[in-house]
Structure formats: C-alpha cells, structure tokens
Amino acid sequence: MTDVRSADPAVAATPAPGAGPESGRAGRGAGLRAGAGAALPAVGLLIALAVWWLTARLELIHPAALPPPGEVLTAFVDKPVQMLGHTWDTMLEILYGFALSVAAGVLLGLSLASSRTVERMFTPLLVAVNAVPKITLGPLLVVAFGWGQTPILTMVFLLCFFPIVLSTATGLTTTPADLAELVRSWNASRWQAFRKVRFPAALPQIFVGLKVAMPLAAIGAVIGEFQAGESGLGYVITQYAGVGDTATAWAAIMLVALVSILLYSALLLTERLALPWVRETTSSR
C-alpha cells in the first residue's frame, strides 16, 4: 500500500484559498471601516452640539430664541414623563398618517402606471394639490374635522401622499428593457408580469418615495398639532414657546428630530431586509 505520508509536501503546505494574511488584513480593514461608519453619526452630532453651544455662549442668537444645550436638557429632565407621553402621541400620528399615505399612494400609483387615461386625468390635479402650501389648510381642516387626530392625520396624509404616488408610478413605468423582453418571451399574463417582474423591479424606486415621505410625515404631524392638537410635541412647542419657556420648546423640537431619525432608520433597515439584492447589484458601499 502507498503511504499517504509520502504525498508532495509542497502540495500539503499550499494554503487554502482566502486563508492567507491578505485575507486577514482585508477582514480587519472591513471591521475598522464598519466601526468608523457607526461612529460617524455620533461625531456629526457632537459637532452640531458644539456649534450650538458656541452660538449660545457667544450670544450670536438671543438666548430667549436659542437657549444653550444644557438648559434644553434640563427642561427635558425636569418633566420626562410628560415629554415622553407627548412624544408617543406624535409618533403614533406619524405612523398612522404614513401608513394611510402608503396604502393610498401605492394604489393610485398603480392606477397611473396601468392606464394612460387615468394618468392624464389625475396628474394635473395631483400636481395642483401638492403645490398648495399645506400650512394654509390647517385652519380649514379644523373647521372641517374639529380638534383632535383627524385633522392631524389629514395633514400628514397630504404631505406624504404625492412623493409615494410619484415614485410608485415611476418605478412601474420604468421596468428594465431586458426584464420586459424576458416576460414577453415567457408569454406571461399581465398579472404574472406584474407579480414576478414589474412590481419587484419597482420596489427600489418605491422605497425612494417612502424615504422622502417619512420626514414629511413628522413635519405634517407637528404642523397639524400646531393647528388642532390637544397633545403631542407640536402642542408642547406652541404652549411653552407662548409663555416664554423656549428651553422646553426646544426640547420638544429635539424629540421630533429624534423620532424622525429613528423612524427613518427603521425604514432603511426594512429596505435592506426586503431588498438585499439592491445593494449587491447597484453599489459597493
């Protein structure tokens, strides 16, 4: 029998692919880049806080209009339960209004993409509605719906609706030519083409509209609370700014920004989980 130990030592000593020092260095480099990327938002926040503190310290803006960051933090610490309760109310209004906008916007976008007649009929109307400054509609919404959540959700809906409709219609009408030709070669039905090709290909564009609409939802909720709110961060801003407590008003503004960042980040995570192939085929970042 042949002794297996007599095999060529050069072959036995050959390292496995990807097991060399270059691979280790590449892995460490990727880890460092990932850690640096995670730290960059914190660095940006520290820079913004430093600029804010310096501006307040030098009184480049009157302290009544822009209190120092320390006073804003103290205003939140003095009443955390109250502030968090209003934050929860505003976040729910953002989510409910955004969900309504997504449902209606995607459906209307589908209608515009499927029929030239519908597109020509409603596109000018959509553009006209979108061009109206939404804050001017606030008092009219209060007259129409009274106080409470209904006018606030309507304001969120009006701000978010148009970008979702536009992105959905654009995505469904710009299916890549090679995919469209592939569907025709299969002799697929319209439903099969929509389910297997057109809608999946449109999802990246739809998510662009969703990412545009999410911050607008926060703006709409705060504007609605200015006009018709009985709670929420917009209500806090108007009440405390009206009595000169601008530190608490700024604490509410910071909470609006924090809620917007969290919801936008959740949307980005949803996009990555739902469309993992997009990053692999369109970007190396």
TrEMBL record:
Q: Which InterPro entries match?
A: MetI-like, MetI-like_sf
Return the Low complexity bias intervals: 7-20
User: What membrane topology is annotated for this entry?
Assistant: Multi-pass membrane protein
Region feature (Disordered): 1-27
Q: What SUPFAM superfamilies does this protein's entry cite?
A: MetI-like
Domain ABC transmembrane type-1, residue spans: 87-271
Its domain of life reads Bacteria
Name the UniProt key words of this record, in alphabetical order.
Cell membrane, Membrane, Transmembrane, Transmembrane helix, Transport
CDD domains noted in UniProt: TM_PBP2
Q: Which family does it belong to?
A: Belongs to the binding-protein-dependent transport system permease family.
What protein is this chain from?
Answer: NitT/TauT family transport system permease protein
Species of the source: Micromonospora taraxaci
Q: What is the lineage of its organism?
A: Bacteria, Bacillati, Actinomycetota, Actinomycetes, Micromonosporales
